[in-house]
Design a protein that fits this description.
Blueprint: E1 24-25, E2 32-34, E3 40-42, H1 53-56, H2 61-83, H3 88-101
Antiparallel strand pairs: 1-2, 2-3
Helix pairs in contact: 2-3
């Protein structure tokens, strides 16, 4: 599932705190920090991990279907903006949306 079109990660209000003044957060890798010497740390906890198969598998089929439909609709909006309404990608997304709704 394309969870990044549905879930915000990291969730609003989640703050990752590096240790010490030299350790800096890695901006393109939420929840990771690094020191100038190259030591990388994972600051995430079970509560601040991104969506995963393990987390999503605990949801019911109805909820998963709703999430999938919303995620695909958001992907379609972006695809139309970037490639146009008549693109192959948008057609493919439309077919996938029909299959999920069925």
């Amino acid at each position: 599932m394309r969870w990044w079109y549905f879930f915000e990660y990291p969730e609003e209000g989640v703050v990752f705190q590096p240790e010490g003044e030299e350790e800096k957060l890695l901006t393109h890798y939420p929840g990771y920090s690094a020191t100038p010497k190259g030591r990388v740390r994972d600051l995430r906890t079970d509560w601040t991990m991104p969506p995963s198969f393990q987390k999503l598998s605990k949801l019911g089929m109805t909820e998963l279907r709703q999430i999938a439909v919303e995620a695909i609709k958001k992907q379609r909006v972006i695809a139309v903006q970037e490639e146009g309404e008549d693109s192959d990608l948008v057609s493919s997304i439309d077919k996938e949306l029909e299959e999920i709704k069925a």
